[in-house]
Design a protein that fits this description.
Helix content: 40-55%
CATH class of the largest domain: Alpha Beta
Strand order of the largest sheet: 1-10-7-4-2-3
Low-confidence stretches: 471-479
Number of domains: 2
Number of helices: 22
Oligomer: single chain
Structural class: alpha/beta
CATH superfamily of the largest domain: NagB/RpiA/CoA transferase-like
Mean pLDDT: 93
Bound molecules: iron/sulfur cluster
CATH topology of the largest domain: Rossmann fold
Amino acid sequence: MHFKASAGGALGDAVLQANLARFGASGFALARARAVEAYGAAEFERLRTAGAEIRDRALATLDAYIERFEREAAARGATVLFAETGAEACELVLEVCRRHGLKKAIKSKSMLSEEAGLNEALAAAGVEPVETDLGEYIIQLAGEPPSHIIAPAVHKSKDAVADLFAAHHRSPRKTDIGEMTREARAVLRGHFVSADLGISGGNFLIAETGSGVIVTNEGNGRMVTTLPRVHVCITGIEKVIPTLEDFATLLRLLPRSATGQAISNYVSLFTGPRRAGDRDGPEHMYFILVDAGRTNLVGGDMQAMLRCIRCGACMNHCPVYRTVGGHAYGWVYPGPMGAILTPSYVGLENALELPQAATLCNQCGVVCPVRIPLPDLLRQLREQEVERRLRPRGEMLALRAWSWVAQRPRLYALATRWVARVLRVVGGGSGRIRRLPGASGWTRERDLPAPRGATFRDLYRRTGARPAPNAQPGASAPR
Ligand code: SF4
């Protein structure tokens, strides 16, 4: 996963930059701020604490809650299957297809199925997968992965979607969003009624009732979970929470953090297959609970990451995500959560640049509804990279040299004065450095302002400034 190269490409892509600017202005972050204000900022902070406690309580005895979930779901007629890897999860779905003779799957959003590459596995086995969430449908037509966990096609412009629809629907090109949506709905209706398998994700699994939950703004979730004769819910093992009461608390957090809504358009709980007397619902219902690296996080430094309820708030507020978009992160999960989850799931050595893909400004930590200390986790991953000697040799040597100089104050003062002088000369009359040999990353996409005036140490000595008498060392240091 080559974040730097992909991010460089994203920065140079004018269309993507325009789409990202629109996304920034589209206001998920603003909507969240308004929703928090309406709820009461102090009360919302208490809610965040409660959310974090619920997730921690569930994770502390995850095995017990998973067993309870399995018992309760089975008692209500569902089958619970377990997969250790994404590939195993795909194989289990294919087994279900073979057992029931299924040929066409309609899907509502499931990040786990993206992780596992389920669509590719289904297609290779002759089962047609059709994404029915509008954003997922668009990127399936485009043959692209999602770029945001709740707005998967946010990187696409209206015109790009109009081109896709015209090409795939074989209909006159439309550019009115209402008309385009109606056209997609008409096409998807045909898929809804002809599919024999519904595949959904699950925002939560409730142990005390054996239910799955999806929280969504599109009605496709209910179609997928009720119309076809078989329903498979595929999700991660960490999604299990103890009770319906816990779900009610997390439901107050999720839509407000994601889109700024007090509640999403649809909140659907599914508990077992259709019972005698039910007018709709699947004849068979399966839950596939996938590990795929999650148990490795339990009890370790990254355990807090398993609290994640996939709201997307961290990416909506992240200056890096908002500048480079989701595809630069190279896998299913973008933004700050992806910069932690991806190395945790695929191995730090396979995603070396992701923990560096953050400014550590803590915007993500401030808005995370379950108080995941994202910047702390990113910092820990960076430490692990250094401890395991995974950073490039040149960088390690440069940091070692810097550390050596920084521990010798006189030499440090001399060196900074000298470097500032050289940079001033390089900046010339414009005061801007356009190319910096040996550190081209600083100037590839923008100019670096040349230093002006005296160094901080010189100013400090000249003005005779001293720390305030009761100042705590490091108390005001930015982190
Ligand atoms: S890490 Fe927090 S803010 Fe980001 S998606 Fe997960 S729950 Fe939401």
